[in-house]
Task: structure prediction
Amino acid sequence: MNTTARPQGPSTARVLYALILREIQTRYGKHRSGYLWAFMEPAITIVLFGSGFLLLGAAPPRGMHVLPFLITGVGAFFVFQNVMLYTMGAIASGRVFFSYPGVMPFHVTIARGILETLTMISVFFVFLFVGWLFGVEIELEDPLAIVLCLLALSLFGFGLGSALGMAAQFLPFLQRVVPAITRPFLLFSGAFYTAEEIPPQAATYFLVNPLLHAIEILREATFYSHHSIYADGAYLAVCVVGALFFGILLQAALKRRVLCLDKTA
Result:
C-alpha cells in the first residue's frame, strides 16, 4: 500500500500571491511598457469600429456617444475573452509549478484569472478616462452596477476557461480551436449595436448569448438614456454560476489525472 502523500506547503494565499507575481514577471517582463499590450487589441478594435461609424455616418441610438458606446461593448467583450483564454492556458504554462509543495492546477488557474481580471477591468476604465480627457462626455449612471457587470463577465470567462483548460490537457486541439471560435463572437455580442436593433426573427437566437445580456446591462448602468427591454440579469447570473460550477467540477474531478500526466511525462 502506497502511503506517500504530497508534503504540506504554504498557505493558499501565499501560493496565489507568489504565482501572481511570477505571472506578472513572465508576461510583462521588467519593463512597464509591457502592460501596453493589454490595451492594444481592444484599442485597435475600438478604433476600427469607430472609424466605420464615422465613414458610414452612423451613430448609436438614443444619443449615446460612439466612443463610450464602443468601450462598453468591445471593452466588455475583451474582459470576458481575455480572462477565459488566459485562464484556459494556465495549466499548460504552469506545469513546472506542480512539483512544488502545495501547488495544484486550480492555484495556477485562479492566479491567472485574478491577474487578468484586474488587468482588463483596469483597461476598461482607462479607456473611459482617456475618452474623458479628450472631451468626450462619459456617463456613469450606476458605477457599482458597472463594476458588478464587469466582474460577472470575468467570472463567466473564468468558469469557462477553468473547464476548457482542464479539458485541453486531454484534448490539446482545444488550445487552437477555442481562440479561433471565441473571437468571432464579438460580432454576435452587441459590441457595436443594441439588442433592440437586432431583427425580431434573429433576436431569439442572439439572446441565447449571455454576453449580449451582459453588455446590455452594462450600457444601462452607463448611459442614462439606455434602457433595454431584452436584458435579463437572472439569465446572465445562471450562466455565470453554471460556468463556475462546471469549471470547478472539472478541476476537482481531473486534477489527479493532470498531476499524473506530469509525473509520467
Remarks:
- The chain has a mean pLDDT of 87.
- Residues 12-26+37-264 form one domain.
- The radius of gyration is 20 Å.
